[in-house]
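Reminder to self: tokens first, then the designed residues, so the page reads top to bottom the way the pipeline ran.
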């Protein structure tokens, strides 16, 4: 069975970037037996700490998409992040906005593999983990990587987001 086109796009983006996991091996998208729509569910399925899950959250930042890769251990402080980024209005995007800008659905949004690159911030709390896990384009796909790799492959900016 052929992987979902979103999973293929994510793996292609990882391959093109030379993305690595925590052991230095190539990052490979893995399919879990079931969809994992929350960081807690992903952590349980993978046997890792919830903080090692890099949630991909799309926000509407003054009308433009903003990808926030945040540790699954906490929530984004939207007012604080808006002030840090210099935007006047920052709120969670609608499912339609997410799909329009990422080509992916909420619960499976990956850090890469979008139609066009997104402005990205990466939660500095993820530095506490040698390996982190991110969504792979659909709700049951994930891939291992590191904080440094997330910054590199997304051209993201480090930020305290909680």
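Designed residues (162 positions):
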């Amino acid at each position: 069975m052929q992987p979902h086109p979103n999973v293929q796009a994510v793996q292609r983006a990882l391959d093109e970037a030379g993305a690595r996991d925590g052991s230095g091996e190539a990052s490979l998208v893995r399919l879990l037996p079931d969809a994992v729509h929350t960081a807690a569910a992903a952590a349980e399925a993978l046997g890792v700490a919830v903080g090692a899950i890099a949630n991909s959250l799309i926000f509407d930042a003054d009308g433009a998409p903003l990808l926030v890769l945040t540790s699954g251990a906490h929530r984004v402080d939207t007012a604080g992040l808006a002030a840090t980024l210099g935007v006047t209005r920052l709120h969670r995007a609608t499912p339609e906005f997410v799909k329009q800008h990422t080509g992916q659905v909420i619960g499976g949004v990956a850090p890469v593999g979008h139609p066009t690159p997104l402005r990205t911030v990466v939660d500095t709390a993820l530095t506490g983990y040698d390996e982190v896990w991110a969504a792979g384009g659909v709700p049951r796909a994930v891939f291992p990587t590191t904080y440094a790799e997330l910054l590199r492959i997304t051209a993201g900016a480090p930020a305290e987001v909680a």
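The chain has a mean pLDDT of 95.
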